[in-house]
Amino acid sequence: TSTLEGRSFVPTAGSTSDRTNTVEDIARQRSRTFSAEDKTFGNTLRGRTTSEGERIMKIKQGLGSAVSALSNVSAFALKPLRDLQLAEQINAMNIDIEEAQRQREIEKYNRLQEEDRDLEEMIRMKREAEQSCLDATTEHLLGFIKDNPSAKYNQWIEVFHPENAHDGTLLEGLGKTIDHRFFVEESDHRRLWNENLSTYLESSPKGRDFVPARAKQTNDDGEIVKAEDILSGSVVEDREIFTSHHVHGGSDLIAFD
Fold this sequence. Notes:
Elements: H1 16-147, H2 153-160, E1 165-167, E2 176-178, H3 188-195, E3 217-218, E4 224-225, E5 227-228, E6 235-236, E7 245-248, E8 251-254
Antiparallel strand pairs: 1-2, 3-4, 5-6, 7-8
């Protein structure tokens, strides 16, 4: 049967050595191809790694700069707050100092008030004691002149204050010398006596003898001395030289004080 294509052509087969060479050539070609590709991939990988490291380094540097910038901005922004905190601390210290000063002033005021109260209490007690002495003296005087309507001032003092009535050194037996403090102007005894000259003597128009004040007292050397009132204990400054006299049994006698 005739055909247009014909049968398949069969080429001549090569020898075994040719086939082996051909395989080796293909392997070497592939090896060269793979080696080139490996180098290219390694170079690419190293390049990528280097680029990545540089990028990370740049990112770190950028972050450091950003953090530094933020720190500067924070420091600048927080400065008013720190100034405010410092001002508050200083104000608190000033308040503490003022409070301590105020407390000291209060304590000083309280101490002065307490001292004033103590002084007022002492003055009150002194006045009460003086008044008590005056009341006792008045009571004794009224009882004495009631029992002895015609008695003399010296006689009352001798009975009421025997420790202040002394025997005369020159005229013995003619009466006693009375302490000059009972004759000073501020003497409460003399004042009480003179206020009661007519007490219990309603029938006698004359009354008892008035006791004048002795203005000055001198010692044995003629020097002026200060006298103290018996009741109040206050110092009395005498005013003039005086030669004392007192009446005893109707006669004037010199009293040597």
